[in-house]
UniProtKB/TrEMBL annotation:
Protein name listed in UniProt: Argininosuccinate lyase
InterPro entries cross-referenced by the UniProt entry: Argininosuccinate_lyase, Fumarase/histidase_N, Fumarate_lyase_fam, L-Aspartase-like
Family: Belongs to the lyase 1 family. Argininosuccinate lyase subfamily.
Listed Gene3D superfamilies: Fumarase/aspartase (Central domain) (1.20.200.10), Fumarase/aspartase (N-terminal domain) (1.10.275.10)
Originating organism: Coptis chinensis
PANTHER family tied to this protein: ARGININOSUCCINATE LYASE
Length: 175
């Protein structure tokens, strides 16, 4: 639970930093891109705030503590989950956290890709202190995004395999 709270705190810091960056660049027009081709001009804050929105949406997927009775009542259910076995054997909370991490990593990867392009000689929109250092850091973030997506896939596959093993055991196919 502390790890989840820390993740929300980090996401909130990310949002604040991006909002501040958008405010600093209010009114700045940059070319929009689609499929690596220039498209219509856009406001840089508009682009930056799109990342804020993506990060903000993740908050709802972090498995934060909720009032089970209020939620079940609000949704029109008669009561929260009654089966303690189902409640403790359910992997959804793990998959939700991994999914949120995976989605956040993909968003960061996309942001990193744009920043590398913008810092390149071809684009020249960013002038980092050290282009090589910046690209190495960003490429590291992009590589980690692959690991986050793979972790989610591995756990989903493992969950499916365990469910099949349990089913086979129940019908007597396994000893």
């Amino acid at each position: 639970m502390e790890e989840e709270a820390g993740r929300v705190k980090d996401l909130n810091r990310e949002e604040v930093a991006l909002v501040n960056l958008a405010k600093k660049n209010e009114g700045l027009i940059v070319p929009g891109y689609t499929h690596m081709q220039r498209a219509q001009p856009i406001l840089l804050p508009h682009l930056i705030l799109s990342y804020v929105e993506q990060v903000h949406v993740l908050w709802g997927n972090l498995g934060l503590p909720i009032d089970r009775f209020m939620t079940s009542d609000a949704l029109g259910f008669t009561a929260p989950m009654r089966s303690s076995i189902d409640a403790v054997s359910d992997w959804d909370f793990v998959l939700e956290i991994l999914s949120a991490n995976s989605i956040a990593a993909v968003h960061l990867s996309r942001l990193g890709e744009e920043w590398v392009l913008w810092a390149s000689e071809e684009f020249g929109f960013l002038t980092p202190n050290s282009y090589k250092c910046t690209t190495v850091i960003i490429e590291s973030v992009r590589a980690e995004s692959i690991r986050a997506v793979n972790a989610e896939t591995e756990v989903q596959t493992l969950k499916d395999a365990l469910a099949k093993l349990e089913a086979e055991k129940e019908v007597g196919l396994l000893q």
